[in-house]
Design goal:
Chain lengths: 245, 241
Amino acid sequence: MSRAPFALWRWERLWNDKAVIFNGFVTTLLVSLLALALAMAIGIVFGMLGTSEKKPLRAVNRVYVEFFQNIPLLVQVFFIYNAFPLLGFRWPVFTIGVVGVGIYHGAYVAEVIRAGIRSIPKGQGDAARSQGFGYIQTMAYVILPQTIKIILPPLTNQAVNLIKNTSVLATLSGLDLMYRADSWASQGTLSYGPAYVAAGALYFLICFPLATWARRYERRIKEREHLQLSEAAAEEMMLMAEEML
Amino acid sequence: MIKMEHVNKSFGKTQVLKDVSLVVNEGEKVVILGPSGAGKSTAIRCVNGLELPTSGAVYLDGTALTAKNRTQLVRRHCAMVFQQFNLYPHMTALKNVTLALTKLQHMTKAEAAEVAGECLETVGLADKAQSLPSQLSGGQQQRVAIARALATRRKILLFDEPTSALDPETVGEVLSVMLRLSHEHGITMIIVTHEMGFAKQAADRIVFMDGGEITAEDNPDAFFNNPPNERVQQFLSKVLY
Ligand SMILES: Nc1ncnc2c1ncn2[C@@H]1O[C@H](COP(=O)(O)OP(=O)(O)O)[C@@H](O)[C@H]1O
Ligand SMILES: [Mg+2]
């Protein structure tokens, strides 16, 4: 048999064992989805704190964001893996993945949400509060829905980063895509080449469409806003023409 | 009844309201006049708790507004119309009007839609119920905003320069709706405006603010025909001509 790193037989072996890789892929998807849900929940809460009128609440937002954004994800996940058991928390690696990746990306999502809220004119909050809506209701009915258009592209990019970052789990034997690919190669025929290519291709398969969609959506929104403006302008001119006639 | 008692309001180091005291009785229509920067907006924003006084107090039907109770109190008493309309751009005209009805007054969707339909009818926009704010002219948007304020059936309506952001040709349609409202005895109105014609017709009382203070107060006849002080005279001569 050829010893070449990408020899055909290595690909055949990989194909025969594809269930192993697929297993890892499913785990990666699950961790990603749950971590994304957690990141969103954290992001909304801390993003809202970041736009509060109260200084201490804004400070809480800053501390959270700066702390988690400026320490490598790997360090955070290792901390949860090795230091948490000493405090009596012994979590399965899957949970560590969800929590670790979730709170890390929660910091980024918080920044996205904060920017989104700040982009909504102050009059919107005034209108809601003058109707008797409380803070949470104002956010839920009036402010946050209006931010969606603006935050969807950066949020999608966050989701892409999050999916890629779940590969840190491989360092903790996390049974995710990267781990499965790596261990399949190291415990068998050392076919690292095909294994990593397959893993990369599968990450690409989810991330690329997401990133592309985000970019297109962003462009479409910009164009539509443009369109709306020019429509209004056209109407304005028609009205003026009518008046003059 | 609205009672402002020795209200002072500062933003940082700048004092915007200085010892403002004002009583507006039930059903009364009060127009606030004054130069830009006089504190008119801040004063009516204090009435519905959008701002809280630095010192002094605002009472709605005898209850002092506080940070704690303002949401509840405003929900019971006040509605406001803004210079920039502040319609919710992601909702149709109808939904703008029904939101508070379904979420705060717990009406069913159908009940809310019926009330909203009536209110949109009142402002002459029954046919625009399904339009988004971006599809409406400024005057139409402001009338939807008035319908939104009316729908909750609150006794106090606050207007902060409702026609100042409008194209001249749509000012009339909004003023005529407001003028009609001013004939309703049950509604208390405080209106900040620069529309002197409207003020003369609609107001029971004119309040003049300048530099954060109420410097004059009179019935429209006396106020316009016999300006109470020189500053008012100056102001009137500027806006009238
Ligand atoms: N949120 C705020 N923060 C700081 N200054 C403010 C704020 N709101 C109003 N002001 C200031 O208070 C003064 C009065 O404003 P305002 O009540 O809007 O006057 P008016 O409505 O009569 O034009 C202005 O000098 C304005 O700059
Ligand atoms: Mg003002």
